[in-house]
Structure formats: C-alpha cells, structure tokens
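Structure tokens please, single chain.
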Amino acid sequence: MKDQAKFDHLNEIFSLRSKALEKEEANCKKIEDKANLLTAGYMKRYQTLSENFEKYTKEIEDLKRMKSVYETLYEQEKVSMVKRKNHLENEIIIFKEKERKLQRRYKRYKEQLTLLQNENIEGNGNNNVNSVNNGIKT
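Here you go.
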C-alpha cells in the first residue's frame, strides 16, 4: 500500500503542477497578446520602413549604375569631339583649297573668254567665240 499511496501522492502533485502550468500558459498567452497589441504598430512601421529601405537601396544602386554609364559616355564623347573637330577642320582646309583651285580655274577661263571675245570683235564675227566656248573644259 505504500506504493499506492506514493503513486496517489505523486499523481496529485502532477495534477497540481499541470494546473499551475496551464494557468501560467494562459497568463503567458494574455501577456503575449497584450505585447502583440502594443507592438503591432511598431511591427507594421518596421515592415513599411524595411520595404522603403529596400526600395531606396535598389534605386540608389540603379542611379549609381546609370551615373557610371553616363560618366563613361561623357569621357568617350570628349575624346570623339576632339577627333570630329580635327576631322571637320581638315575637311574645311580641303574645301578651301578646292575652292581656291576652282576660283583660279574660273578666273583663267574668264580671261580666256574675254581674250577670245576681244579677238572676235576685232576679227571676223561671233562664230569663233561659240566654237571656243564649246571647247572649254569645266
């Protein structure tokens, strides 16, 4: 019987401690619910701030990448501007030289035409001038 009494005593202690644990669990649940109510605003604010932080971090990275691209393009453009400028200056020199040659050629042809017209006036008529004009290379 000693064993039965001991078993009953331990069973009673177990029951009391189980009830105490259940009571403590209910108390903890109430405290947890209160904590959730109190911190719900903070958690929502944390989530919003966290989302904004991620969004702005990504935006900053994108802007850094874009800035890097534009800086590279700017450096390349600086180099190419010098090359284009030099190329255009060379073309201008070539066009000026061609223009001078063409002006000299025009002047020479005009002088020849004037000489031929003067010879024709002094000479025998307009037929020679027309034939000379047809033979001038332009």
